[in-house]
Amino acid sequence: MSTRARLITAMIIAGAAAACAAPAEDVSLSQEDRDRITRGIEQGMTEAGVSGAWAELADHFTADAYHMPAGEPSVVGRESIRDYLARNWGVLPVTEMTQAIDKLDGYDGLAYARGTYHITVDDGGSLVIRDRGKFLIIAEKQADGSWQIATSMYSRDTAKPEVE
User: Which domains, and CATH codes, for the chain?
Assistant: First the structure.
């Protein structure tokens, strides 16, 4: 192999190695980012659900978000999600709701949270419904440092919720 061919080969290998190298700046989730996402999901969203503020819950979503409920078509866009939540959940007396993140990770302004949920609906005497399942949320960091949901999906752990 000629010197020129060796030099070209070395330059190609060096360029490929540089392209595969980790970025110089750490762009993983900071503890502040983790705390904001956790507060938004585990506290903010659940407080909105228990207080019956389902329409306000949509404020946690990006304008072009996808909400993918189990067994139903996707709901696209914050305003459509707002309507969906108010129509499907706003009529129910949710007395208990928890969401717990099992795994949270992300990189460069994009994060995912995987976890579980539990919801209890109690109309005060004649009907109690308990539902539990899992969720997956993809969140995007906004220019102001807040995090909003770009995609969410959930599914229950059983075919139907428990009715008492």
Answer: 28-163 (3.10.450.50)
